[in-house]
TrEMBL record:
Location of the HIT domain: 2-104
Protein name: HIT family protein
Entries under InterPro entries matching the protein: HIT-like (IPR011146), HIT-like_sf (IPR036265)
Highest taxon of the lineage: Bacteria
GO-annotated molecular function: catalytic activity
Transmembrane region(s): none
Amino acid sequence: MAHGTMRTFGYPNTLVREYDHWTAQLRPKQATLGALAMICKSEVTAFSDIGAEAFAEMPRVIGDIETVLSQLFGYEKINYLMLMMVDPEVHFHVLPRYAATQTFQGVSFADPGWPGPPDLTHAAEAGEVVQARLLERLRATWPG
């Protein structure tokens, strides 16, 4: 059953890959090109409460995220932000970082915070068609 944080990030429509304990979802607001949310499926609000199995699965999920985002977009750095101020269940904002503006399907994706902290208030005007193409590309490249 999907909890509130998963739904806030558009589950199931934004789902890239579902794991036993995590989901990788396309972030509806693309602060940078390929921004994802890595969300624990347990309804826990403290990182220490996710359970040993979820901790054990994290390297696989992170490895898949980094492999796919590197292959598709060649990011320069990647940031994982665990904020949980608005959406309480354990999750990370996954932000590939770029020194230069990236283009996907004719849309420019800037990273105005580079080289400092990411600017989560910024998002590219991607539109539904570009979001759908981005989701298709991610799903097609994802292992498994």
